Each structure stands twice: as C-alpha cells, then as structure tokens.
Amino acid sequence: MAWEPLPEDPYKLALEKAESDLANAIQERDKWTLELVRLEHLTQALSVMIGKSNYRGFLAKVSQEVGFQEVVLTCVRQSPEPMTAVDVRDSLTSIGYDLSKFKNPLAVIHGALKRLAAAKQIEETNGAYKSAHEQLRNIRALGELMKSHPPADVRPTKEALRDALVNAGKKK
Questions:
Q1: Torsions phi, psi of 102, nearest 5?
Q2: In terms of CB atoms within 10 Å, which end of the chain has fewer, N or C?
Q3: Helix (H, G, I), strand (E, B) or coil at 157
C-alpha cells in the first residue's frame, strides 16, 4: 500500500476520528442489543425451569425488553453478508431467541424485514437484506485501516482505502 503525507487539518482528523468512533459505538450497541436479548430469554427460561413462570427478577423489571424489529435490524447490521429471512431466523436461534411464541416465525421475520426496508433502514437485493447504511461499513473499514497504520502523519491513498474496504467486506 502506498502512503502519502497527511495534510495538517486538525478538523478533518477530528471528523474522521469521530466518524470512526461513532461506527464503533454503533457496532458495540448492536453487540449489546443481542446480548440483552440472549440474557432476557435465558432468564425467562430459567424462571420456568425453577417453577416460577411468572417470576421476573429486579433487573428484568427495570430493563426494557428489546423489540423484535430492533433485534432483526441488529442481526442484519451485524452481518457482513446480506441475510435472508432464514439467515435471520438462524441468527436469532443461535443467540437463544425463543421463536416458538410465533405461529409462523419466518412470516414474522419477513414482516419485520419488509418494514425495515420500507423505513430505509435496510436494503433488499434479490430476497436478501443488508444494512442501508453502507457508510458505516466504510467508516469501520477506515478505522481498521487507521488502527493498522497508527502514525498520525500518514494517510492511505485511494487505492489502499479501496483495498481495505474490499477486505472489510470479506471479513465478519
């Protein structure tokens, strides 16, 4: 990768850092959203197992249950590849989301995906969905590139940035 000197523009550097931090914060929020869902469902399952099906502990009472559509959006946003409704179902199952409360889980997932697409939060391409905010992936890729080349006096060329974006799309 070729590198060229970074122009002395502290505002531009601050903006790039803020964008990278924002993208990382969104990624962390998504990780914690999925962890909240997993723990909520685990708590409910364990409550049933000990014979207290109506039991909700203090933490469960003060935490708000994450909405289904938010969980679907998070699954799609976290995926490096477009996801079908079946992929979303598998992702939800892997974190312990109880889909048995739905008579037809795939129909509910499809409905959530369609609503998210209509709200332009995700994009549909050939029956699969991906995050509508491509710039978040680009900012994350730039952040990763800048982490791997920490000196503050260098800036990646367009070719180096393009390569980082291509590689970021291949990683999970």
A1: -100, 135
A2: C
A3: coil
Structural domain boundaries in the chain: 8-170
| Contacts (Cβ under 8 Å, ≥6 apart) of 169 | 80, 137
Range 65-86 burial, b when 16+ CB lie within 10 A, else e: ebebbbbbbbbbbbbeebbbbe
pLDDT tens track for 26-51: 888 888 888 888 887 788 778 878 87
Q: Whole-angstrom Cα distance, residue 88 to residue 84?
A: 6
Per the rule left: phi > 0, alpha: psi between -120 and 50, beta: everything else, 96 is left
Backbone angles phi, psi at 146, to 5 degrees: -70, -35
Residue 133 CB coordination number (10 Å) = 16
